[in-house]
Amino acid sequence: xxxxxxxxxxxxxxxxxxxxxxxxxxxxxxxxxxxxxxxxxxxxxxxxxxxxxxxxxxxxxxxxxxxxxxxxxxxxxxxxxxxxxxxxxxxxxxxxxxxxxxxxxxxxxxxxxxxxxxxxxxxxxxxxxxxxxxxxxxxxxxxxxxxxxxxxxxxxxxxxxxxxxxxxxxxxxxxxxxxxxxxxxxxxxxxxxxxxxxxxxxxx
Length: 204
Fold this sequence. Notes:
- By secondary structure, the protein is an all-alpha fold.
- It is about 70% helix and about 0% strand.
- It contains nine helices and no strands.
- It comes from Pseudomonas veronii.
- One of its GO terms (molecular function) is transcription cis-regulatory region binding.
């Protein structure tokens, strides 16, 4: 059993990349088993379906996100400082776990209803924590607060892929993403129009 688990961990990233790059519907259990160095029967013993394996990776993704928030929370600062640290943490996590981000963004709808409920619970927990760390905007209804948390989380998790095809070096890409995310999230968090940073565009 220990040897099996060691072998599974060794090939896990390869299987994750396969599923994320080709798409959930394009990969069968036999191909996944092969990428993991297992027989289909061995894989079915631990994961009755592709959905169970997908859920495992998505749960791993949200657990890592929550751990990342916890590290930032250990040293609480001002909202602006927390925002910058959260942006940096999410960009770094995207570099470390790019295939997880792709799976969550694209394939959650392939899960069963019960599994999707589990993912929603994890996502909502993460979104609530984000708002708590950044300071909940006042004068918003409960539903508007939930929408704000969802919008901020979506920005943080999806933005790193926006510039993937651009001819930018790492420093340029990071700076542009930080500026985009900071401006957008600060506007979401602003409670009044007078609080919102103005958008000035220089015209040559």
